[in-house]
Protein backbone atom coordinates (compact mmCIF):
# COMPACT_ATOMS: atom_id res chain seq x y z
CA UNK A 1 0.00 0.00 0.00
CA UNK A 2 1.59 3.29 -1.07
CA UNK A 3 0.23 6.29 0.81
CA UNK A 4 -3.21 7.30 1.99
CA UNK A 5 -4.57 10.71 0.99
CA UNK A 6 -5.00 11.65 4.67
CA UNK A 7 -1.32 10.97 5.32
CA UNK A 8 -0.26 13.21 2.46
CA UNK A 9 -2.58 15.95 3.64
CA UNK A 10 -1.38 15.53 7.23
CA UNK A 11 2.29 15.87 6.32
CA UNK A 12 1.67 18.95 4.21
CA UNK A 13 -0.42 20.57 6.95
CA UNK A 14 2.24 19.82 9.54
CA UNK A 15 4.69 21.91 7.51
CA UNK A 16 2.17 24.58 6.42
CA UNK A 17 -0.39 24.95 9.22
CA UNK A 18 -2.35 27.61 7.32
CA UNK A 19 -2.56 25.57 4.14
CA UNK A 20 -5.74 24.62 2.37
CA UNK A 21 -4.98 21.19 0.90
CA UNK A 22 -7.12 19.39 -1.63
CA UNK A 23 -6.11 15.85 -2.52
CA UNK A 24 -7.67 14.01 -5.42
CA UNK A 25 -7.11 10.30 -5.95
CA UNK A 26 -6.91 10.43 -9.73
CA UNK A 27 -7.49 6.78 -10.46
CA UNK A 28 -9.00 5.62 -7.21
CA UNK A 29 -6.00 3.33 -6.74
CA UNK A 30 -4.31 5.10 -3.82
CA UNK A 31 -1.22 5.63 -5.96
CA UNK A 32 -1.88 8.49 -8.36
CA UNK A 33 -2.78 11.72 -6.64
CA UNK A 34 -3.23 15.35 -7.46
CA UNK A 35 -2.70 17.89 -4.71
CA UNK A 36 -3.51 21.55 -4.63
CA UNK A 37 -1.86 23.44 -1.79
CA UNK A 38 -2.76 27.03 -1.02
CA UNK A 39 -0.64 28.74 1.61
CA UNK A 40 0.51 32.20 2.55
CA UNK A 41 4.00 30.70 2.95
CA UNK A 42 4.37 30.56 -0.84
CA UNK A 43 3.99 34.30 -1.35
CA UNK A 44 6.99 35.71 -3.18
CA UNK A 45 8.54 32.26 -3.76
CA UNK A 46 9.33 31.11 -7.29
CA UNK A 47 7.30 28.06 -8.38
CA UNK A 48 10.26 25.71 -8.14
CA UNK A 49 10.83 26.71 -4.50
CA UNK A 50 7.12 26.30 -3.70
CA UNK A 51 7.10 22.77 -5.04
CA UNK A 52 10.42 21.97 -3.34
CA UNK A 53 8.93 23.14 -0.03
CA UNK A 54 6.01 20.73 -0.43
CA UNK A 55 8.32 17.88 -1.43
CA UNK A 56 10.42 18.61 1.66
CA UNK A 57 7.28 18.44 3.78
CA UNK A 58 6.72 14.95 2.40
CA UNK A 59 10.10 13.97 3.78
CA UNK A 60 11.64 12.19 0.80
CA UNK A 61 8.55 10.11 -0.01
CA UNK A 62 8.02 11.94 -3.29
CA UNK A 63 9.56 9.90 -6.07
CA UNK A 64 9.68 6.92 -3.69
CA UNK A 65 6.57 5.43 -2.08
CA UNK A 66 4.67 8.37 -3.49
CA UNK A 67 5.06 7.68 -7.17
CA UNK A 68 2.69 10.12 -8.76
CA UNK A 69 1.59 13.40 -7.28
CA UNK A 70 0.49 16.16 -9.58
CA UNK A 71 1.18 19.28 -7.61
CA UNK A 72 -0.31 22.73 -7.88
CA UNK A 73 0.66 25.46 -5.45
CA UNK A 74 -0.87 28.89 -4.95
CA UNK A 75 -1.13 31.76 -2.50
CA UNK A 76 -4.53 32.72 -1.04
CA UNK A 77 -6.35 35.37 -3.08
CA UNK B 1 33.74 12.43 -15.40
CA UNK B 2 31.29 12.37 -12.50
CA UNK B 3 27.52 12.37 -13.02
CA UNK B 4 27.43 15.92 -11.72
CA UNK B 5 29.97 17.06 -14.34
CA UNK B 6 28.16 15.24 -17.12
CA UNK B 7 24.84 16.83 -16.15
CA UNK B 8 26.54 20.20 -15.88
CA UNK B 9 27.77 19.87 -19.47
CA UNK B 10 24.37 18.78 -20.78
CA UNK B 11 22.68 21.70 -19.06
CA UNK B 12 25.24 24.24 -20.23
CA UNK B 13 25.64 23.01 -23.80
CA UNK B 14 21.94 22.87 -24.64
CA UNK B 15 19.56 25.83 -24.63
CA UNK B 16 16.70 23.49 -23.76
CA UNK B 17 17.22 20.05 -22.31
CA UNK B 18 14.63 17.64 -20.94
CA UNK B 19 15.64 14.83 -18.61
CA UNK B 20 12.94 12.23 -19.08
CA UNK B 21 11.98 8.56 -18.97
CA UNK B 22 12.12 7.21 -22.51
CA UNK B 23 12.51 9.23 -25.67
CA UNK B 24 10.32 11.99 -27.13
CA UNK B 25 8.94 9.43 -29.60
CA UNK B 26 8.42 6.76 -26.93
CA UNK B 27 8.00 8.33 -23.50
CA UNK B 28 7.92 5.67 -20.78
CA UNK B 29 5.88 7.61 -18.23
CA UNK B 30 2.82 9.83 -18.29
CA UNK B 31 4.61 12.81 -16.79
CA UNK B 32 7.45 12.63 -19.31
CA UNK B 33 4.89 12.27 -22.06
CA UNK B 34 3.16 15.43 -20.88
CA UNK B 35 6.46 17.35 -20.84
CA UNK B 36 7.23 16.25 -24.40
CA UNK B 37 3.75 17.24 -25.57
CA UNK B 38 4.22 20.74 -24.16
CA UNK B 39 7.62 21.22 -25.79
CA UNK B 40 6.37 19.88 -29.11
CA UNK B 41 3.38 22.16 -28.93
CA UNK B 42 5.69 25.13 -28.37
CA UNK B 43 7.70 24.05 -31.42
CA UNK B 44 10.89 24.26 -29.39
CA UNK B 45 14.24 22.79 -30.40
CA UNK B 46 15.35 20.66 -27.47
CA UNK B 47 17.73 17.95 -26.40
CA UNK B 48 16.45 15.01 -24.38
CA UNK B 49 18.20 12.64 -22.02
CA UNK B 50 16.67 9.24 -21.28
CA UNK B 51 17.44 8.63 -17.61
CA UNK B 52 16.32 5.00 -17.90
CA UNK B 53 19.42 4.36 -20.00
CA UNK B 54 21.78 5.77 -17.40
CA UNK B 55 21.38 5.06 -13.69
CA UNK B 56 24.07 7.58 -12.77
CA UNK B 57 22.21 10.40 -14.47
CA UNK B 58 18.87 9.14 -13.14
CA UNK B 59 20.01 9.59 -9.53
CA UNK B 60 22.43 12.41 -10.32
CA UNK B 61 19.84 14.74 -11.79
CA UNK B 62 17.70 14.45 -8.67
CA UNK B 63 20.61 15.58 -6.52
CA UNK B 64 21.77 18.18 -9.04
CA UNK B 65 18.39 19.92 -9.12
CA UNK B 66 17.29 19.06 -5.57
CA UNK B 67 14.14 17.70 -7.22
CA UNK B 68 12.79 14.21 -6.50
CA UNK B 69 11.12 13.32 -9.78
CA UNK B 70 11.59 13.01 -13.54
CA UNK B 71 10.98 14.78 -15.95
CA UNK B 72 13.04 17.90 -15.37
CA UNK B 73 13.41 20.81 -17.75
CA UNK B 74 16.36 23.15 -18.05
CA UNK B 75 16.27 26.28 -20.19
CA UNK B 76 19.42 28.34 -20.72
CA UNK B 77 21.13 26.59 -17.83
CA UNK B 78 18.32 27.25 -15.40
CA UNK B 79 16.12 24.62 -13.76
CA UNK B 80 12.51 25.37 -14.62
CA UNK B 81 10.77 22.47 -12.90
CA UNK B 82 8.90 19.27 -13.66
CA UNK B 83 5.82 18.63 -15.77
CA UNK B 84 3.39 20.28 -13.31
CA UNK B 85 5.29 23.56 -13.40
CA UNK B 86 5.67 23.28 -17.18
CA UNK B 87 1.91 22.90 -17.46
CA UNK B 88 1.25 25.84 -15.14
CA UNK B 89 3.70 28.02 -17.04
CA UNK B 90 2.26 26.92 -20.36
CA UNK B 91 -1.28 27.74 -19.28
CA UNK B 92 -0.13 31.13 -17.98
CA UNK B 93 1.61 31.88 -21.29
CA UNK B 94 4.97 32.11 -19.52
CA UNK B 95 6.65 29.33 -21.49
CA UNK B 96 5.61 30.95 -24.76
CA UNK B 97 7.21 34.20 -23.54
CA UNK B 98 10.40 32.38 -22.60
CA UNK B 99 10.61 30.76 -26.05
CA UNK B 100 10.19 34.12 -27.75
CA UNK B 101 12.55 35.93 -25.43
CA UNK B 102 15.38 33.47 -26.07
CA UNK B 103 14.51 32.66 -29.68
CA UNK B 104 14.15 28.94 -28.96
CA UNK B 105 11.59 28.06 -31.61
CA UNK B 106 12.59 25.63 -34.36
CA UNK B 107 13.65 27.29 -37.59
CA UNK B 108 10.84 26.77 -40.07
Class computed from helices, strands and strand pairing of chain A = alpha+beta
CATH level-1 class of chain B? Alpha Beta
Mean pLDDT figure of chain A: 91
N-to-C SSE series of chain B? HEHEHEEHH
Q: Count up the domains of chain B.
A: 1
Q: State the major sheet of chain A.
A: 3 strands, mixed
Order of helices and strands of chain A: HEEHE
- What is the share of helical residues of chain B? 40-55%
Q: How many structural domains can be distinguished in the coordinates of chain A? A: 1
CATH architecture of chain A: 2-Layer Sandwich
Question: What is the CA-based Rg of chain B, rounded?
Answer: 13 Å
Separate helix tally of chain B: 5
* Architecture per CATH nomenclature, i.e. the level-2 architecture of chain B: 3-Layer(aba) Sandwich
Q: According to CATH, what is the topology of chain B? A: Glutaredoxin
Report strand order across the widest sheet of chain A: 1-2-3
The residue-averaged pLDDT of chain B reads: 95
Your description of this structure?
The complex is a heterodimer of chains A (77) and B (108). With 77 residues, chain A is of the alpha+beta class. Chain A has one domain (5-74): BolA-like (GMP Synthetase, Chain A, domain 3, 2-Layer Sandwich). Helices cover 29% and strands 26% of the residues of chain A. Chain A contains two helices and three strands; from the N terminus they run H-E-E-H-E. Chain A has helices at 5-15, 47-57; strands at residues 20-25, 32-38, 68-74. Chain A has a three-stranded mixed sheet. The model of chain A has no long low-confidence stretch (mean pLDDT 91). Chain B has five helices and four strands; from the N terminus they run αβαβαββαα. Helices cover 48% and strands 16% of the residues of chain B. In chain B, a hairpin with a 2-residue loop joins strand 3 and strand 4. Chain B is of the alpha+beta class and 108 residues long. The relative contact order of chain B is 0.20. In chain B, helix 1 (3-13) packs across helix 3 and helix 2 (30-41) runs parallel beside helix 4. Chain B starts with a helix and ends in a 6-residue tail after the last helix. The longest helix of chain B has 12 residues, at 30-41. The model of chain B has no long low-confidence stretch (mean pLDDT 95). Chain B has helices spanning 3-13, 30-41, 55-65, 83-91, 94-102, and strands spanning 16-20, 47-50, 72-75, 78-81. Chain B has a four-stranded mixed sheet, sandwiched between helices. Chain B has a single domain (3-102), classed as 3-Layer(aba) Sandwich (Glutaredoxin). Chain A binds chain B through residues 47-48, 51-52, 55, 60, 62-64, 68, 70-72, and chain B through 30-31, 62, 66-69, 79-82, 84-85, 88-89.
Amino acid sequence: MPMAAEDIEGMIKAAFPDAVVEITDLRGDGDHYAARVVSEAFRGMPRVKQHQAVYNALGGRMGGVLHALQLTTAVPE
Amino acid sequence: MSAHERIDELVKNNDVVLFMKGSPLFPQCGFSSRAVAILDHLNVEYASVDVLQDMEIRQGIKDYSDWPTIPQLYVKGEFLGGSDIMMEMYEAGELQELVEQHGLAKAS
